[in-house]
């Protein structure tokens, strides 16, 4: 995909936050809201930013609320309702007052941040994730946000494959479905 690398990382964070912080099902099993929300939130953020700092309980709670909103965007795209996804992203952009600002820190080159004015970590991530998803929805790759199609899994993904044919959250679910199909064929005379 042709997003800039910072936007790519932000979209990966959005995926990570949804997958770690929204209850549902994962790879064939129930996935309740994690008991250690702070650890789960940090893991979600590290999906895009491997060196992200630890997260406090309070921040994790806020991030979980944001993750629920972000999931709505993936759900809408997965059901083919890109209009609804766009409306949800616009709502988040307005609420978080995301705005682009070039920043340079920690020895990195200049890069775009999309922070809101609130100055909280969760608020900054809400603004950034909303912007990242807006970049995807506003591009020719608008249908690349997805929800796993394997049975009993609702984890989300961003499809960066060349032909855009991804259907699963990961290889575990892909293999699960393949194995089930193989067994089903074996039973048919
Ligand atoms: Zn899955």
TrEMBL record:
SUPFAM superfamilies: Jann2411-like (SSF160904). It comes from the Bacteria. Pfam families: ABATE, zf-CGNR. Residues 144-185 form the Zinc finger CGNR domain. Gene3D superfamilies: Jann2411-like domain (1.10.3300.10). This is Putative stress-induced transcription regulator. It comes from Streptosporangium canum. The lineage of its organism: Bacteria, Bacillati, Actinomycetota, Actinomycetes, Streptosporangiales.
